[in-house]
Amino acid sequence: MAARSRVEDLAQGVLDVLPVTDTIYHHLAFTRPLVDSILRAVRVATPAGRVLVIAPNELLPTVLLELGYKVDLWVVDGLPLSKENLQLASRRGQLDEVLLEPPTQLVDMVILAYGAEAAILEPAELLHSLRRHVREGGYVVLACRQPGDIRRRLRAVLRKLRANVRQDHGYPPSPTWPALQARRLLTRRDLVRAVGGHFRVIGSRYVIDRRAHLTTEALGLGPWLLKQGLHLAKLAVPPFRDCVLVTMVADARARPPSSRSLAGQSETLDVSAEPLLDEVV
Asked: Which pTM value belongs to this model?
């Protein structure tokens, strides 16, 4: 718990001094839970080394630098970053463009949030591509939107009741992350199936990617209670949370998962024809 508190305190301290507008500050604070979870996974996996962050927001690479990591960024078009972070970028472009470029140097860890479900590459192809950039014994940390989050479950119930449910286009919860639209939703089992002989999954858990609401958001009592209730449900029931966070290690001795270990595994959920949840539900 102490280590967790130190990481969270550092992230908040970095956020407090970022030279950003009030609007960006509050959005970064709103989505800091995902940054905290990623940072904890990084610290558990490796205390130092070169980290490649694909499609970063403003906060994550800045905290990694404060923690002493060497940071490389692949910046996705459409998200303004500070001059300091842009100086760390070795690639810029659309997500699929930067993912498909050949490797230039090996890194100790790759971090990708909201990208595995948005890439044109299927999960197995994506991991095969990422493996070319990671040294043997290095790590990949993926944060992926998952189909069991409570808003999606609630909307499924509302659709059965023929309620008029407003469509959401499946973007990350804040414009301070790159606008990567989900082509699919991924479960842990989907990612375990995709590792092939390239990686070995060493950790996975459900995580919350946002606070209950923006502190600057003007809410009536009903919407406020609903948002608080949904957030409490996510805290109490891990499968209701927004994302699955998976850590895997590059291991040449890794074997593809057996059919027995994948028995009962759910398929990747294609969201191209299914509306996602809006901001309230």
From this structure: 0.88
Cβ contacts of residue 191 below 8 Å, gap of 6+? 116, 123, 142, 144, 201, 204, 244, 246, 248
Asked if the structure places residue 277 within a domain, the reply is: no
- For residues 147 and 196, what is the distance between their CA atoms, to the nearest angstrom? 22
CA–CA gap between residue 113 and residue 210 (Å, rounded) = 13
pLDDT score at 223: 92
Domain that holds residue 41: 2-270
**Mean pLDDT calculated for residue range 187-199:** 90
Q: Is residue 162 part of a domain?
A: yes
Contact (Cβ atoms closer than 8 angstroms) between residue 62 and residue 51: no
Q: By mean pLDDT, which of 35-39, 42-46, 154-158, 189-193 is the weakest?
A: 154-158
- The CATH number of the domain holding residue 215 is 3.40.50.150
Residue 138 CB partners (closer than 8 Å, separation 6+): 46, 49, 106, 107, 108, 109, 110, 249, 250
What are φ and ψ of residue 93, in 5° steps? Answer: 155, -170
Decide if 275 is inside a domain: no
Q: How many domains does the chain have?
A: 1
CA distances from 278 to 1, 136, 150, 217, 224 (A): 33, 41, 12, 15, 15
In a domain, 179, yes or no: yes
